[in-house]
Design a protein that fits this description.
This protein is α/β, with parallel strands linked by helices. The protein contains 13 helices and ten strands. It binds ligand C2E and magnesium ion (MG) (3 copies). One magnesium ion binds next to loops.
Length: 289
C-alpha cells in the first residue's frame, strides 16, 4: 500500500497549489450542503450603552458548526461564500434567523427594545433582490423594522460601480437602521455620509486598541485617541450614533465614555454567545450574565 500512498501523494502534489489552497477549496465546496443541512449558527454579541451599561443591541455573527472541524469562524468562510456567490443565500438565512431570534426576544421582553444588527457583505448589498429579502425577513418574522440594523463596510456602501448603492435608500425607507462597519479602515469617500440615511458609525477595532486610560502603553502622541475623538465629533455633528468595536478593557470603556462615544462592543461587555444566553441576559435586566 506504500505504492498506493505514494501515488496518492503525487496526485495531490502540485507546486502551484499549496495545502492551504486545497483546504480552502474543500471548505468552499462544502458550503452549499452545509447551508442545506443547517450547519450554520448565529452567535450574538452585546452592544452596550457606555452611559449606563444597558444592552441596546446585539450583533449577529455567523459560525459554521462543521461536523469534523468543529466551530469555524466567519473569517474562514465569508470570503469564500462571497467568491462563490453563496453569500446571497447564506446572507438571506442569516437575516431571517436573526430577525426570528430578535422577534422572540421582543415578545418576551418588549420594553428592552433590543435591536439586532446584521452584517451585509458587499456582494449581498449589491444584489438586486436585497430590499425584497430584507422586507421578507421582517414580514415573515414579524420583527418591527426599527429593531433591525444592517451593517455595511465603506466599500460595500460604494458598490462595485463606485457609487453609493441606491438600494440603501430603499432599505432605510423600510425603516431599518443602517450602520457603517469598521469605519475608518476603508477608503472613505465621506460624500456618502451627506447623501445616505446612515444611523450609526462603528469605529474599527484598531483605533480602539490604541486607547488605554491607564496610560501605560499609550503612544506618546495619543494618535488613536485623537482619531476617535475626531470621529465621534464628526458622527455627532451628523446626528449619528457611534459604537466602538473591540472594547477589551475597562480602561478603554472609561476612556471611550469620556470621549462621548455612545455604545461599545467587545469582550469587556461580553463575547458573542448563543441566542439563549442573550435571553438570559435580558431576563437579568440587561446586566452582564
Ligand atoms: P465585524 O462585523 O467587524 O464583527 C466584529 C468581530 O470582532 C467579530 O469577529 C467579533 O467576534 C470580534 N470581536 C468581538 N469582541 C472582540 C474584542 O474584544 N476584541 C477584538 N479584537 N475582536 C472582537 P467574528 O465573529 O470572527 O466575525 C468576523 C467578521 O466576519 C465580522 O467582522 C464580519 O465582517 C464578518 N461576519 C460575521 N458574521 C457575518 C454574517 O452573518 N454576514 C456577513 N456578510 N459577514 C459576517
Ligand atoms: Mg459587523
Ligand atoms: Mg466591525
Ligand atoms: Mg470586520
Amino acid at each position: 500500500w506504500a505504492k498506493a500512498e505514494g501515488r496518492g501523494r503525487w496526485a495531490v502534489y502540485d507546486p502551484e497549489r499549496s495545502a492551504a489552497d486545497i483546504a480552502r477549496s474543500a471548505l468552499a465546496a462544502g458550503l452549499p450542503a452545509a447551508l442545506d443541512r443547517g450547519e450554520f449558527v448565529l452567535h450574538y454579541q452585546p452592544i452596550v450603552s457606555l452611559l449606563d451599561g444597558t444592552m441596546l443591541a446585539v450583533e449577529a455573527l455567523v459560525r459554521w458548526q462543521h461536523p469534523e472541524l468543529g466551530l469555524i469562524g466567519p473569517d474562514r468562510f465569508i470570503g469564500l461564500a462571497e467568491e462563490t456567490g453563496l453569500i446571497v443565500r447564506l446572507g438571506a438565512w442569516v437575516l431571517r434567523q436573526a430577525c426570528r431570534d430578535a422577534e422572540g426576544w421582543r415578545r418576551a421582553y418588549p420594553e428592552a427594545r433590543l435591536v439586532v444588527s446584521v452584517n451585509l457583505a458587499a456582494r449581498q448589498a449589491d444584489d438586486p433582490a436585497i430590499v425584497e429579502t430584507v422586507a421578507e425577513a421582517l414580514t415573515r418574522t414579524g420583527l418591527p423594522a426599527e429593531l433591525l440594523q444592517l451593517e455595511l463596510t465603506e466599500s460595500a456602501v460604494m458598490g462595485t460601480a463606485g457609487e453609493p448603492l441606491r438600494s440603501l435608500r430603499e432599505l432605510a425607507d423600510l425603516g431599518v437602521r443602517l450602520a457603517i462597519d469598521d469605519f475608518g479602515t476603508g477608503y472613505s469617500n465621506l460624500a456618502y455620509l451627506r447623501r445616505l440615511p446612515i444611523h450609526c458609525l462603528k469605529l474599527a477595532g484598531p483605533f480602539v486598541e490604541g486607547i488605554r486610560a491607564d496610560g501605560a502603553d499609550v503612544a506618546a502622541d495619543h494618535r488613536d485617541e485623537r482619531i476617535v475623538d475626531a470621529l465621534v465629533r464628526l458622527a455627532h455633528a451628523l446626528e449619528l450614533w457611534v459604537t466602538a468595536e473591540a472594547v477589551e478593557t475597562e480602561a478603554q470603556a472609561e476612556r471611550l465614555r469620556a470621549l462621548r462615544c455612545d455604545t461599545g462592543q467587545g469582550r469587556w461587555f461580553g463575547a458573542p454567545v448563543p441566542a439563549a444566553q442573550i435571553r438570559a441576559r435580558l431576563a437579568g435586566g440587561g446586566e452582564p450574565a
